[in-house]
Amino acid sequence: MNSISRHLQTQFSLFACYDSGPDSLRAGKRCQVPILPRNSSVSASRFAMSLNPVSSAQSRRHGSIKCKSGDFSESPELEPGRESPSESMQPSVPGEQFYIIKILKESNSFLPHAVIASTLLALVYPPSFTWFTNRYYAPALGFLMFAVGVNSSERDFLEAFKRPAAISAGYIGQFIVKPLLGYFFGMMSVTMFSLPTSIGAGVMLTSCVSGAQLSNYATFLTDPSMAPLSIVMTSLSTATAVFVTPLLSLLLIGKRLPVDVKGMVSSILQIVVAPITAGLLLNRFFPWICNAIRPLLPPLSVFVTALCVGAPLAINVDSIMSSFGLTILLIITAFHLSAFIIGYFLPGFIFQKAPDVKALQRTLSFETGMQSSLLALALANRFFQDPLVAVPPAISTVMMSLMGFSLVMLWARRRATAQ
Protein backbone atom coordinates (compact mmCIF):
# COMPACT_ATOMS: atom_id res chain seq x y z
CA MET A 1 0.00 0.00 0.00
CA ASN A 2 2.84 2.37 0.82
CA SER A 3 4.45 1.83 -2.62
CA ILE A 4 1.13 2.39 -4.40
CA SER A 5 0.48 5.60 -2.48
CA ARG A 6 3.97 6.88 -3.25
CA HIS A 7 3.41 6.08 -6.96
CA LEU A 8 0.11 7.97 -7.04
CA GLN A 9 1.67 10.91 -5.21
CA THR A 10 4.47 11.02 -7.78
CA GLN A 11 2.07 11.07 -10.73
CA PHE A 12 -0.04 13.77 -9.04
CA SER A 13 2.94 16.02 -8.45
CA LEU A 14 4.21 15.60 -12.01
CA PHE A 15 0.84 16.27 -13.63
CA ALA A 16 0.42 19.28 -11.40
CA CYS A 17 3.71 20.62 -12.74
CA TYR A 18 2.54 20.14 -16.36
CA ASP A 19 -0.80 21.74 -15.57
CA SER A 20 0.95 24.81 -14.29
CA GLY A 21 1.52 25.80 -17.97
CA PRO A 22 4.51 27.10 -19.87
CA ASP A 23 4.79 30.22 -17.71
CA SER A 24 6.29 28.25 -14.90
CA LEU A 25 8.81 26.73 -17.29
CA ARG A 26 9.84 30.17 -18.55
CA ALA A 27 10.20 31.34 -14.98
CA GLY A 28 12.73 28.63 -14.36
CA LYS A 29 10.63 26.58 -11.99
CA ARG A 30 11.60 22.97 -11.81
CA CYS A 31 9.30 20.06 -11.17
CA GLN A 32 10.58 17.86 -8.46
CA VAL A 33 9.93 14.24 -9.11
CA PRO A 34 10.77 11.99 -6.20
CA ILE A 35 13.10 9.15 -6.94
CA LEU A 36 11.59 5.76 -6.47
CA PRO A 37 13.29 3.60 -3.94
CA ARG A 38 15.15 0.59 -5.20
CA ASN A 39 12.93 -1.82 -3.33
CA SER A 40 9.78 -0.31 -4.79
CA SER A 41 7.37 -2.70 -6.43
CA VAL A 42 6.87 -0.22 -9.31
CA SER A 43 9.86 -0.41 -11.62
CA ALA A 44 11.30 2.55 -13.47
CA SER A 45 10.21 1.24 -16.88
CA ARG A 46 6.64 0.78 -15.72
CA PHE A 47 6.74 4.24 -14.19
CA ALA A 48 7.76 5.72 -17.55
CA MET A 49 5.06 3.75 -19.34
CA SER A 50 2.47 5.01 -16.91
CA LEU A 51 3.46 8.60 -17.66
CA ASN A 52 3.50 8.39 -21.48
CA PRO A 53 2.63 5.08 -23.08
CA VAL A 54 2.92 6.54 -26.62
CA SER A 55 6.54 7.59 -26.20
CA SER A 56 7.24 4.27 -24.63
CA ALA A 57 5.87 2.47 -27.63
CA GLN A 58 7.95 4.65 -29.97
CA SER A 59 11.07 4.00 -27.95
CA ARG A 60 10.52 0.30 -28.29
CA ARG A 61 9.97 0.66 -32.04
CA HIS A 62 12.83 3.05 -32.87
CA GLY A 63 15.31 2.47 -30.11
CA SER A 64 16.00 4.17 -26.82
CA ILE A 65 16.62 7.92 -26.76
CA LYS A 66 19.38 9.55 -24.79
CA CYS A 67 18.78 13.00 -23.33
CA LYS A 68 21.47 15.26 -22.04
CA SER A 69 20.92 15.97 -18.43
CA GLY A 70 20.24 19.57 -17.49
CA ASP A 71 19.73 20.78 -21.09
CA PHE A 72 16.21 20.42 -22.43
CA SER A 73 16.70 22.85 -25.32
CA GLU A 74 18.74 20.41 -27.34
CA SER A 75 17.18 17.68 -29.36
CA PRO A 76 17.53 14.14 -28.12
CA GLU A 77 20.35 11.98 -29.37
CA LEU A 78 19.75 8.61 -30.91
CA GLU A 79 21.87 5.62 -30.27
CA PRO A 80 24.14 4.71 -33.18
CA GLY A 81 22.43 2.64 -35.82
CA ARG A 82 18.96 3.74 -34.78
CA GLU A 83 16.48 5.59 -36.98
CA SER A 84 14.60 8.59 -35.70
CA PRO A 85 10.79 8.40 -35.60
CA SER A 86 10.47 11.42 -37.91
CA GLU A 87 12.70 9.77 -40.50
CA SER A 88 10.86 6.50 -40.32
CA MET A 89 7.56 8.29 -40.82
CA GLN A 90 8.74 10.02 -44.06
CA PRO A 91 7.01 8.64 -47.17
CA SER A 92 9.19 6.77 -49.58
CA VAL A 93 9.94 8.83 -52.73
CA PRO A 94 10.03 6.98 -56.04
CA GLY A 95 13.59 7.58 -57.14
CA GLU A 96 12.97 6.15 -60.60
CA GLN A 97 10.55 8.97 -61.43
CA PHE A 98 13.03 11.68 -60.48
CA TYR A 99 15.76 9.85 -62.39
CA ILE A 100 13.68 9.83 -65.57
CA ILE A 101 12.83 13.52 -65.19
CA LYS A 102 16.52 14.30 -64.65
CA ILE A 103 17.44 12.45 -67.84
CA LEU A 104 14.80 14.34 -69.79
CA LYS A 105 15.96 17.72 -68.48
CA GLU A 106 19.62 16.96 -69.19
CA SER A 107 19.01 15.54 -72.66
CA ASN A 108 20.32 18.80 -74.16
CA SER A 109 23.80 17.49 -73.38
CA PHE A 110 23.32 15.03 -76.26
CA LEU A 111 22.80 17.85 -78.74
CA PRO A 112 26.37 17.79 -80.17
CA HIS A 113 26.13 14.03 -80.66
CA ALA A 114 22.73 14.42 -82.31
CA VAL A 115 24.08 17.08 -84.68
CA ILE A 116 27.04 14.91 -85.69
CA ALA A 117 24.86 11.81 -86.08
CA SER A 118 22.26 13.62 -88.19
CA THR A 119 25.00 15.12 -90.38
CA LEU A 120 26.61 11.75 -91.07
CA LEU A 121 23.26 10.04 -91.61
CA ALA A 122 22.12 12.73 -94.04
CA LEU A 123 25.30 12.38 -96.08
CA VAL A 124 25.35 8.58 -96.03
CA TYR A 125 21.62 7.90 -96.41
CA PRO A 126 19.74 11.06 -97.54
CA PRO A 127 16.25 9.43 -97.67
CA SER A 128 16.27 9.30 -93.87
CA PHE A 129 15.68 13.09 -93.84
CA THR A 130 14.22 13.95 -97.24
CA TRP A 131 10.68 13.49 -95.90
CA PHE A 132 11.25 16.55 -93.69
CA THR A 133 10.51 19.00 -96.50
CA ASN A 134 10.54 22.79 -96.53
CA ARG A 135 7.02 23.16 -95.20
CA TYR A 136 8.12 21.74 -91.84
CA TYR A 137 10.94 24.24 -91.28
CA ALA A 138 8.77 27.10 -90.06
CA PRO A 139 6.73 25.01 -87.55
CA ALA A 140 9.91 23.35 -86.28
CA LEU A 141 11.61 26.68 -85.76
CA GLY A 142 8.45 27.99 -84.09
CA PHE A 143 8.57 25.09 -81.65
CA LEU A 144 12.18 25.94 -80.72
CA MET A 145 11.15 29.56 -80.18
CA PHE A 146 8.23 28.40 -78.02
CA ALA A 147 10.63 26.32 -75.90
CA VAL A 148 12.72 29.43 -75.34
CA GLY A 149 9.64 31.38 -74.26
CA VAL A 150 8.54 28.69 -71.82
CA ASN A 151 11.96 28.74 -70.17
CA SER A 152 12.10 32.54 -69.98
CA SER A 153 10.32 35.19 -67.95
CA GLU A 154 10.10 38.92 -67.61
CA ARG A 155 12.96 38.76 -65.11
CA ASP A 156 15.31 37.79 -67.93
CA PHE A 157 14.60 41.10 -69.62
CA LEU A 158 15.14 42.98 -66.36
CA GLU A 159 18.62 41.49 -66.20
CA ALA A 160 19.45 43.17 -69.50
CA PHE A 161 19.30 46.67 -68.08
CA LYS A 162 21.87 45.86 -65.42
CA ARG A 163 24.62 45.55 -68.06
CA PRO A 164 23.66 47.83 -70.94
CA ALA A 165 27.23 48.03 -72.27
CA ALA A 166 27.47 44.25 -72.66
CA ILE A 167 24.03 44.12 -74.27
CA SER A 168 25.06 46.82 -76.75
CA ALA A 169 28.29 44.96 -77.56
CA GLY A 170 26.38 41.77 -78.26
CA TYR A 171 23.86 43.61 -80.42
CA ILE A 172 26.61 45.32 -82.43
CA GLY A 173 28.37 42.01 -82.93
CA GLN A 174 25.16 40.38 -84.12
CA PHE A 175 23.79 43.03 -86.48
CA ILE A 176 26.87 45.06 -87.51
CA VAL A 177 29.97 42.87 -87.31
CA LYS A 178 28.24 39.74 -88.58
CA PRO A 179 26.53 41.37 -91.62
CA LEU A 180 29.83 43.03 -92.59
CA LEU A 181 31.52 39.63 -92.47
CA GLY A 182 28.66 38.11 -94.43
CA TYR A 183 28.93 40.75 -97.10
CA PHE A 184 32.70 40.29 -97.29
CA PHE A 185 32.60 36.49 -97.61
CA GLY A 186 29.55 36.62 -99.90
CA MET A 187 31.32 38.92 -102.33
CA MET A 188 34.46 36.80 -102.01
CA SER A 189 32.55 33.68 -103.00
CA VAL A 190 31.28 35.37 -106.17
CA THR A 191 34.34 37.36 -107.24
CA MET A 192 37.26 35.24 -106.10
CA PHE A 193 35.81 31.72 -106.30
CA SER A 194 33.40 32.38 -109.21
CA LEU A 195 30.46 30.77 -107.40
CA PRO A 196 26.87 31.50 -108.47
CA THR A 197 25.33 34.75 -107.26
CA SER A 198 22.72 32.79 -105.30
CA ILE A 199 25.48 31.28 -103.15
CA GLY A 200 26.74 34.75 -102.21
CA ALA A 201 23.16 35.78 -101.44
CA GLY A 202 22.80 32.77 -99.16
CA VAL A 203 25.94 33.72 -97.23
CA MET A 204 24.68 37.29 -96.81
CA LEU A 205 21.23 36.14 -95.73
CA THR A 206 22.80 33.88 -93.12
CA SER A 207 24.58 36.89 -91.61
CA CYS A 208 21.40 38.98 -91.35
CA VAL A 209 19.37 36.83 -88.94
CA SER A 210 19.21 37.06 -85.17
CA GLY A 211 21.19 35.14 -82.54
CA ALA A 212 20.77 31.42 -82.04
CA GLN A 213 19.21 29.89 -78.96
CA LEU A 214 22.03 27.35 -79.08
CA SER A 215 24.34 30.14 -77.92
CA ASN A 216 22.36 30.33 -74.66
CA TYR A 217 22.88 26.64 -74.01
CA ALA A 218 26.56 26.83 -74.97
CA THR A 219 27.00 29.74 -72.54
CA PHE A 220 25.24 27.77 -69.81
CA LEU A 221 27.59 24.83 -70.28
CA THR A 222 30.67 27.09 -70.18
CA ASP A 223 29.70 29.91 -67.76
CA PRO A 224 26.36 29.22 -66.04
CA SER A 225 26.34 32.61 -64.32
CA MET A 226 26.37 34.35 -67.72
CA ALA A 227 23.40 32.41 -69.11
CA PRO A 228 20.80 35.09 -68.18
CA LEU A 229 22.85 37.72 -70.02
CA SER A 230 23.07 35.49 -73.09
CA ILE A 231 19.33 34.86 -73.00
CA VAL A 232 18.62 38.59 -72.84
CA MET A 233 20.96 39.35 -75.76
CA THR A 234 19.43 36.61 -77.90
CA SER A 235 15.90 37.67 -76.97
CA LEU A 236 16.66 41.27 -77.85
CA SER A 237 18.17 40.39 -81.22
CA THR A 238 15.29 38.02 -81.95
CA ALA A 239 12.64 40.60 -81.07
CA THR A 240 14.21 43.31 -83.22
CA ALA A 241 14.94 40.91 -86.09
CA VAL A 242 11.40 41.59 -87.27
CA PHE A 243 12.63 44.94 -88.58
CA VAL A 244 16.43 44.52 -88.79
CA THR A 245 16.62 41.29 -90.80
CA PRO A 246 14.44 42.51 -93.70
CA LEU A 247 16.30 45.83 -93.71
CA LEU A 248 19.73 44.19 -93.82
CA SER A 249 18.66 41.69 -96.46
CA LEU A 250 17.33 44.54 -98.57
CA LEU A 251 20.56 46.50 -98.19
CA LEU A 252 22.87 43.56 -98.88
CA ILE A 253 21.08 41.44 -101.47
CA GLY A 254 18.04 43.43 -102.51
CA LYS A 255 19.64 44.50 -105.77
CA ARG A 256 20.61 40.98 -106.77
CA LEU A 257 17.55 38.89 -105.95
CA PRO A 258 13.95 39.91 -105.29
CA VAL A 259 13.14 40.12 -101.60
CA ASP A 260 9.61 40.37 -100.21
CA VAL A 261 10.20 42.56 -97.18
CA LYS A 262 6.54 42.52 -96.07
CA GLY A 263 6.40 38.76 -96.39
CA MET A 264 9.61 38.37 -94.38
CA VAL A 265 8.24 40.60 -91.61
CA SER A 266 5.05 38.54 -91.50
CA SER A 267 7.03 35.29 -91.49
CA ILE A 268 9.28 36.42 -88.63
CA LEU A 269 6.23 37.48 -86.66
CA GLN A 270 4.75 34.00 -87.09
CA ILE A 271 7.95 32.04 -86.54
CA VAL A 272 9.63 34.09 -83.78
CA VAL A 273 7.43 36.64 -82.04
CA ALA A 274 4.22 34.65 -81.69
CA PRO A 275 5.77 31.44 -80.28
CA ILE A 276 8.01 33.28 -77.81
CA THR A 277 5.10 35.44 -76.66
CA ALA A 278 2.93 32.36 -76.23
CA GLY A 279 5.64 30.69 -74.14
CA LEU A 280 6.11 33.76 -71.94
CA LEU A 281 2.36 34.13 -71.36
CA LEU A 282 1.99 30.44 -70.60
CA ASN A 283 4.86 30.64 -68.12
CA ARG A 284 3.37 33.76 -66.54
CA PHE A 285 -0.28 32.76 -66.12
CA PHE A 286 -0.20 28.94 -66.22
CA PRO A 287 3.07 27.88 -64.56
CA TRP A 288 1.70 24.46 -63.66
CA ILE A 289 1.32 23.66 -67.36
CA CYS A 290 4.90 24.79 -67.99
CA ASN A 291 6.15 22.63 -65.13
CA ALA A 292 4.37 19.65 -66.67
CA ILE A 293 5.71 20.09 -70.21
CA ARG A 294 9.14 21.55 -69.40
CA PRO A 295 10.88 18.15 -68.87
CA LEU A 296 9.67 17.06 -72.32
CA LEU A 297 10.94 20.12 -74.18
CA PRO A 298 14.72 19.34 -74.10
CA PRO A 299 14.50 15.90 -75.79
CA LEU A 300 11.96 17.20 -78.28
CA SER A 301 14.17 20.21 -79.02
CA VAL A 302 17.15 17.91 -79.62
CA PHE A 303 15.07 15.77 -81.96
CA VAL A 304 13.70 18.77 -83.86
CA THR A 305 17.16 20.33 -84.13
CA ALA A 306 18.59 17.08 -85.48
CA LEU A 307 15.85 17.02 -88.13
CA CYS A 308 16.47 20.66 -89.04
CA VAL A 309 20.20 19.98 -89.37
CA GLY A 310 19.98 16.73 -91.31
CA ALA A 311 17.12 17.58 -93.66
CA PRO A 312 18.78 20.55 -95.44
CA LEU A 313 21.91 18.51 -95.98
CA ALA A 314 19.93 15.53 -97.30
CA ILE A 315 17.83 17.68 -99.63
CA ASN A 316 20.85 19.63 -100.92
CA VAL A 317 23.33 16.77 -100.80
CA ASP A 318 23.94 16.98 -104.54
CA SER A 319 24.85 20.67 -104.29
CA ILE A 320 27.04 20.09 -101.25
CA MET A 321 28.86 17.17 -102.85
CA SER A 322 29.25 19.08 -106.11
CA SER A 323 32.46 20.63 -107.37
CA PHE A 324 31.89 23.86 -105.42
CA GLY A 325 30.45 22.19 -102.28
CA LEU A 326 33.83 22.06 -100.58
CA THR A 327 34.39 25.73 -101.45
CA ILE A 328 31.10 26.71 -99.77
CA LEU A 329 32.07 24.66 -96.72
CA LEU A 330 35.40 26.50 -96.45
CA ILE A 331 33.74 29.90 -96.89
CA ILE A 332 31.11 29.21 -94.22
CA THR A 333 33.77 27.85 -91.85
CA ALA A 334 35.91 30.97 -92.34
CA PHE A 335 32.83 33.16 -91.85
CA HIS A 336 31.93 31.61 -88.49
CA LEU A 337 35.54 31.34 -87.35
CA SER A 338 36.06 35.08 -87.96
CA ALA A 339 32.90 35.87 -86.02
CA PHE A 340 33.96 33.71 -83.06
CA ILE A 341 37.41 35.31 -82.97
CA ILE A 342 36.16 38.91 -83.22
CA GLY A 343 33.44 38.23 -80.66
CA TYR A 344 36.06 36.93 -78.23
CA PHE A 345 38.94 39.39 -78.55
CA LEU A 346 37.07 42.66 -79.13
CA PRO A 347 35.23 42.58 -75.76
CA GLY A 348 38.59 41.87 -74.13
CA PHE A 349 39.70 45.39 -75.03
CA ILE A 350 36.36 47.05 -74.25
CA PHE A 351 35.67 45.33 -70.90
CA GLN A 352 39.23 44.70 -69.77
CA LYS A 353 38.50 46.16 -66.32
CA ALA A 354 35.45 43.99 -65.72
CA PRO A 355 35.95 41.33 -63.02
CA ASP A 356 34.38 38.65 -65.21
CA VAL A 357 35.98 39.72 -68.47
CA LYS A 358 36.91 36.18 -69.55
CA ALA A 359 33.40 34.87 -69.02
CA LEU A 360 32.03 37.91 -70.85
CA GLN A 361 34.41 37.28 -73.75
CA ARG A 362 33.23 33.69 -74.08
CA THR A 363 29.58 34.77 -73.90
CA LEU A 364 29.96 37.42 -76.61
CA SER A 365 31.95 35.01 -78.74
CA PHE A 366 29.04 32.56 -78.70
CA GLU A 367 26.59 35.37 -79.34
CA THR A 368 28.53 36.69 -82.33
CA GLY A 369 29.63 33.39 -83.82
CA MET A 370 26.27 31.60 -83.61
CA GLN A 371 23.08 32.81 -85.25
CA SER A 372 19.71 31.35 -86.17
CA SER A 373 20.72 29.66 -89.41
CA LEU A 374 17.44 27.75 -89.35
CA LEU A 375 15.61 31.05 -89.66
CA ALA A 376 17.79 31.99 -92.61
CA LEU A 377 17.08 28.57 -94.11
CA ALA A 378 13.33 29.02 -93.70
CA LEU A 379 13.48 32.46 -95.28
CA ALA A 380 15.63 31.18 -98.15
CA ASN A 381 13.24 28.34 -98.91
CA ARG A 382 10.21 30.59 -98.81
CA PHE A 383 11.27 33.81 -100.50
CA PHE A 384 13.98 32.78 -102.96
CA GLN A 385 13.24 30.72 -106.03
CA ASP A 386 16.79 29.49 -106.53
CA PRO A 387 17.38 26.45 -104.25
CA LEU A 388 21.11 27.27 -104.07
CA VAL A 389 20.34 30.16 -101.73
CA ALA A 390 19.48 27.59 -99.03
CA VAL A 391 22.82 25.78 -99.31
CA PRO A 392 24.92 28.25 -97.22
CA PRO A 393 22.33 28.38 -94.39
CA ALA A 394 22.14 24.58 -94.44
CA ILE A 395 25.90 24.23 -94.11
CA SER A 396 25.94 27.04 -91.55
CA THR A 397 23.48 25.17 -89.35
CA VAL A 398 25.88 22.26 -89.07
CA MET A 399 29.17 24.17 -88.86
CA MET A 400 27.83 26.68 -86.34
CA SER A 401 26.74 23.88 -84.00
CA LEU A 402 29.94 21.86 -84.38
CA MET A 403 32.25 24.85 -83.91
CA GLY A 404 30.24 26.26 -81.01
CA PHE A 405 30.17 23.04 -79.02
CA SER A 406 33.82 22.38 -79.83
CA LEU A 407 34.57 25.67 -78.08
CA VAL A 408 32.36 24.56 -75.18
CA MET A 409 34.43 21.41 -74.71
CA LEU A 410 37.71 23.33 -75.12
CA TRP A 411 36.87 26.09 -72.63
CA ALA A 412 35.29 23.71 -70.15
CA ARG A 413 38.43 21.55 -70.21
CA ARG A 414 40.64 24.59 -69.68
CA ARG A 415 38.56 25.71 -66.71
CA ALA A 416 38.71 22.24 -65.20
CA THR A 417 42.50 22.17 -65.65
CA ALA A 418 42.88 25.63 -64.10
CA GLN A 419 40.86 24.63 -61.07
UniProtKB/TrEMBL annotation:
<keyword id="KW-1133">Transmembrane helix</keyword>
<feature type="transmembrane region" description="Helical">
    <location>
        <begin position="226"/>
        <end position="252"/>
    </location>
</feature>
<feature type="region of interest" description="Disordered">
    <location>
        <begin position="53"/>
        <end position="92"/>
    </location>
</feature>
<feature type="transmembrane region" description="Helical">
    <location>
        <begin position="165"/>
        <end position="186"/>
    </location>
</feature>
<feature type="transmembrane region" description="Helical">
    <location>
        <begin position="110"/>
        <end position="130"/>
    </location>
</feature>
<comment type="similarity">
    <text>Belongs to the bile acid:sodium symporter (BASS) (TC 2.A.28) family.</text>
</comment>
<protein>
    <submittedName>
        <fullName>Probable sodium/metabolite cotransporter BASS6, chloroplastic isoform X2</fullName>
    </submittedName>
</protein>
<feature type="transmembrane region" description="Helical">
    <location>
        <begin position="390"/>
        <end position="412"/>
    </location>
</feature>
<feature type="transmembrane region" description="Helical">
    <location>
        <begin position="295"/>
        <end position="315"/>
    </location>
</feature>
<feature type="transmembrane region" description="Helical">
    <location>
        <begin position="192"/>
        <end position="214"/>
    </location>
</feature>
<keyword id="KW-0812">Transmembrane</keyword>
<dbReference type="InterPro" id="IPR004710">
    <property type="entry name" value="Bilac:Na_transpt"/>
</dbReference>
<feature type="transmembrane region" description="Helical">
    <location>
        <begin position="264"/>
        <end position="283"/>
    </location>
</feature>
<dbReference type="InterPro" id="IPR038770">
    <property type="entry name" value="Na+/solute_symporter_sf"/>
</dbReference>
<dbReference type="GO" id="GO:0009941">
    <property type="term" value="C:chloroplast envelope"/>
</dbReference>
<dbReference type="InterPro" id="IPR002657">
    <property type="entry name" value="BilAc:Na_symport/Acr3"/>
</dbReference>
<dbReference type="Pfam" id="PF01758">
    <property type="entry name" value="SBF"/>
</dbReference>
<feature type="transmembrane region" description="Helical">
    <location>
        <begin position="327"/>
        <end position="351"/>
    </location>
</feature>
<dbReference type="GO" id="GO:0016020">
    <property type="term" value="C:membrane"/>
</dbReference>
<keyword id="KW-0472">Membrane</keyword>
